[in-house]
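[Automated response] Your request has been received and processed.

Submitted sequence:
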Amino acid sequence: MTAQTTFNPEYAGFWRRMLALLIDEVVIYLPTLYISYFAGYVLRGHLGYYKIVAVGIVISLLIAWLYWTVLESSPWQASVGKRMLGICVSDIDGGRLTFTQSGKRTLCKVLSLLPFGLGFVAAAFTAKKQTLHDLITDSVVVCTAPQRKKKRSKTKIFA
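Generated structure:
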């Protein structure tokens, strides 16, 4: 008989996840900017302006997709921003996502953006703090380190 472990994590909250996203955007922005600029420089004599812009957009999207897909399916199970904030991505049972699962999760983030990013806001209202792309791909974002609880001051302002 095998002992069955239960997966009972502390789920990462909305604001912690949003801060991780902002950190990741900063991490991705500069390399993407330079690579897109370099591609535009190389192609400037061969393609028109709008085609160069389209190539830059495709490069940017590909870099972002690879960034999240590779890192969240790696042993880290987290992007740089998530890792800095002590959270990681797992499947619903606590296992690591495969490259394919992580790739689908990353693509489904587009659905979370529509309309008006409401798919991301779902994390504030679901029991496991899942966004739309988490729900679609049966994944969760969990805390790897316990969150520090704010201690409330017991001082009375008015006696």
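Summary generated for your ticket: The longest strand covers residues 87-91. DSSP finds six helices and two strands in the chain.
If you did not submit this request, please reply to this message.
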